[in-house]
Each structure stands twice: as structure tokens, then as C-alpha cells.
Design goal:
Blueprint: H1 3-41
């Protein structure tokens, strides 16, 4: 096992983690907008 293999694995893991956090943030953002629109239309 070489150093480049370890770096490749680490980069993939970091990229997957960043993608997961980005999707989570997107879900919160969309949910917040949907909740705001729902509350605004039911006043």
C-alpha cells in the first residue's frame, strides 16, 4: 500500500463527507423555505 493510495482514499472520504453535509444543508434550506411558504399561505 502506497502513500498515494492512502491519499486517494482520504480524498474520497473527505469528498463524500462534504457531499453529505452539503445535502443536509440543502435539505434544511428547502425545508425552511417550504415551511415559510406554508405558514405564509395559512394566515
Amino acid at each position: 500500500m502506497s502513500v498515494t493510495d492512502d491519499l486517494g482514499r482520504q480524498r474520497r472520504r473527505v469528498r463524500a463527507g462534504a457531499l453529505g453535509l452539503a445535502l443536509l444543508a440543502l435539505a434544511f434550506y428547502v425545508g425552511f423555505i417550504a415551511l415559510s411558504l406554508y405558514r405564509g399561505s395559512h394566515r
